[in-house]
Amino acid sequence: MARPPIQLSSAVADRIIALLEDGPCDPAGWRRRMASLEAECGVEVYTVLLFVLTHLEFPGEKAREHWGRVLRQWEGLERNVPEGVDLRVAVLQYFLRIQRKLRNPAIVEIKILQKTQDSVIYDELTRLYNFRYFQDRVNAEAQRADRYDAPLTLLMIDADDFKAYNDARGHLAGNMALRRLAAALKRSVRETDIVARYGGEEFAVLLPNTPKLAALRVAEKVRQAVERAGVVTEQDAAARPMTVSVGVASLPGDASAAQELVGKADRALYVAKSQGKNRVKPFSDERREFRRLDVALMGRFNLVEAQSHTLTTLNVSEGGLLFLSEQPMTAGALMRVQLAVSPGQEPLECVVRVVRVVEAVAGYEIAAQIVHIPSPHQRRLRVFLKGQQASEAGRGHSRRRLQARGKARPARAKAKARILTPA
Length: 423
Known about the structure:
By secondary structure, the chain is an alpha+beta fold.
């Protein structure tokens, strides 16, 4: 799996650069300082160290192994060179002569290299990551999320009515507003989240290991932070502050690949803009993206924490479920649902959003979209649905064989779904 590029501007890289400029001058001193840094920040410190020194990338454990050999190489050189050897010379000797990972190394001042790296990945105006870096990261994070079965959510953010704002106040005021807007976005998320300028007045926030439900709370926090920041120029202090619209989409629920995720989040942003702006809109497509199987599962759902009601599903897919209920609901309501998928095992849990309510003969037919499901439960649901699909295919094959022999029996009527009285 492709790894995201090393960030020279990270806190670890800055500390390593400081050590190179004013740190130990001997192998023992470097061994102690790096061991202390590893205890604080993890084995990836060696990855960053070797990248700073050589621009070669190694996984953490492999980098630590190379570092140990560099130290031993350095100690050997120290014994043979009376005037002493610098760390950089030892590293160069190791990767040129022993590992042969470097062929034609260039001597570059680290601060100049860092400045060059920054210009490649940062937007000059806002100091956020630029579009090119975002494209690299969204692809890498999508692959990582797929490999480790982890959620990944993307927020697409657009400054409302920015063109009118820019035209009325001028480009200088517009640039100042974008800088303040970028600062508000950065303050509203974790350090591990990726905040990028997507283009013009549009921004993207990538939230690794964040399911959609949690990301919606982050998106609302971002929206409120921008509104409270009062992004206006001093001359227009009485004017209405700038606001943002936010579209939210997640892997694996809304998309299966990086560019599809971007497209779905952008579609959600378009809906947010069209519905009045200054709001958060999750991606929702009532068209069926997953195959639905007719399954009657017993389960429970909670509208509020103190209430619990039974339900019976009519069909289930990886993206949602259709069930009958005696309780009326409103579109947009969030519910925590438990489904008895396997006898004797704990219920499968997920959070769903009601997308359609139709009054039926005995209650209400509720269509709901799954907006969050823990990874272990998602795997159980996939296994269950694959089993149901295989069983359905087997039954269809048997029916076709009977029909071919002229002995087909009338299909049994499907059992009616039962509405259970709440306990």
